[in-house]
Amino acid sequence: MEIIKVQTQPFNGQKPGTSGLRKQVSIFQQVHYLENFVQSIFNALEDFQGKTLVLGGDGRYHNRTAIQVILKMAAANGFGRVLVGQGGILSTPAASAVIRKNKAFGGIILSASHNPGGPDGDFGIKYNISNGGPAPEKVTDAIYQITQDISVYQSIETADIDLDRLGSVKMGDMPVEVIDSVTDYAELMETLFDFERIKQLFNSGAFSMAFDAMHAVTGPYAKAILEDRLGAGNIVLNGEPLEDFGKGHPDPNLTYAKELVDILYGTNAPQFGAASDGDGDRNMILGQGCFVTPSDSLAVMAANAHLVPGYSQGIAGVARSMPTSAAVDRVAKQLGIACYETPTGWKFFGNLLDAGKVTLCGEESFGTGSDHVREKDGLWAVLFWLNILAVRQQSVQQILKQHWAQYGRNFYSRHDYENVDAAQAKTLMDELEAQFDSLPGKTISGARITFADNFSYTDPVDNSRSEKQGIRIGFADGSRIVFRLSGTGTAGATLRIYLERFEANTDLHDLDAQEALADLIQIADELAKVKHYTKREQPSVIT
Ligand code: VG1
Ligand code: CO
């Protein structure tokens, strides 16, 4: 095997964001762009010679091309073997499961998750470490440093391999195993959930569901698990993964998963609805005419974990990202377990999970997961809910209402202003920070501010510190407004405003969230001059 060394020059801006490096496809298609980043990953790692790398992606445009490039570079750089998903496909949680099961050195996941795909869409790449989780900041920082003065990468000249044929082949001298994308993952799910009971639920004749794969990666997984193993019937919509996701935006929320939302809110709606995102790590949970916010979903899961075989021994603790509502905190308190608050992004849960400090974790951005892998996991969340529904024999709405009655309701909403002017968005954030000293004690529209800060986090396991993770404004009644700029977008800036208010009074729990939060929405605009700086009258997406 002849290793070729290719001269190259650094590209600006190869800085991993909240979850890997995400850019427009056209940027990734520049000569050497992908190669530079991949070589920088390898250069940042130590002692991987002869070891196993896992490789796969969400099947979006450029996935197959990138996989062949990475296989050749992995061979040239001395990996012992690569496990690659058939057709280049591995959902993000499945990749995490495969890394863990095979005790691989790490994995490369090709995805821009919920961002649109296709030649005009986005592409992305991220590195996961041996625990199956996203590389922590010290690794992604090292990768970025290396991208800034890289001058050579290594590859081999050889024919592409057939990604569609299962089995072992060679890339140069390095064995490549094309593995079934679903098997390892589906087997793991069977160890966690009561498949027999869920099967009975589907067979009862009184229960049906709809699952929207949004033409993204979870189609094959949902068909194999829900339809084939659990006998759910023909319930998967948009189940064929397409390179451009059928020109859709594979983000499972009330705006982009409208087809599914219409079904669940329509006549003859099924009892349960769910959707997942581009790479299969997000989930949206719906009941008949009812939407479960991801923050509530995490809380309901924690409160009902004892009903699910994989968690019936009890959960060690829970964690949520800072902007996620405190609904799960209330459950943790009642269970007498710890609750951790981390910055946005799944990489911050890894240490807590590895140390056994938490079992369940989640983010308001439609992500929930547990210690079974080190990524958030869309289908896992759907199965968790199905298991709860099968045991409790109640509707989604009944479960949610009873939950609120017991714990109170954290009214919650996120307002996104997508693709606004980046400089204006930065000014908005800077001006908010400039007000920090004067805000505590101030009353706006009848609400008294008690604190204003920019969230920072010290990891309780390795003591690493992360600063400036989002501006928080807290009020005397416990309400919160959080302002953050997205770290996954590729065009302009995306401003996220997170709103939360606690309501103990059961009589008020049926209010619409936007109504219940109307005062806070108004205050957010006043404080940050949102309309002025975004030049928008309305958010682009409300969840
Ligand atoms: C968003 C979400 C964050 C999530 C991240 C990756 O990041 O807010 O909670 O972890 O996407 O999710 P940001 O920086 O744009 O707010 V995924 O499904 O896109 O990998
Ligand atoms: Co995702």
Automatic annotation (TrEMBL):
Keyword Isomerase assigned: yes
Enzyme Commission (EC) number: 5.4.2.2
A GO term, aspect molecular function: magnesium ion binding
Start and end residues of each Alpha-D-phosphohexomutase alpha/beta/alpha domain: 14-151, 185-286, 295-407
Alphabetical GO biological process terms: glucose metabolic process
GO terms under cellular component: cytosol
Keyword annotations of the record: Carbohydrate metabolism, Glucose metabolism, Isomerase, Magnesium, Metal-binding, Phosphoprotein
Pfam families: PGM1_C_vert_fung, PGM_PMM_I, PGM_PMM_II, PGM_PMM_III
The reaction(s) this protein catalyses: alpha-D-glucose 1-phosphate = alpha-D-glucose 6-phosphate
Cofactor list: Mg(2+)
Keyword NADP: no
EC top class, as a word: isomerase
Entries under InterPro entries matching the protein: A-D-PHexomutase_a/b/a-I, A-D-PHexomutase_a/b/a-I/II/III, A-D-PHexomutase_a/b/a-II, A-D-PHexomutase_a/b/a-III, A-D-PHexomutase_C_sf, A-D-PHexomutase_CS, Alpha-D-phosphohexomutase_SF, PGM
NCBIfam families reported in the protein's UniProt record: PRK07564.1-1
Family designation: Belongs to the phosphohexose mutase family.
UniProt-recorded name of the protein: phosphoglucomutase (alpha-D-glucose-1,6-bisphosphate-dependent)
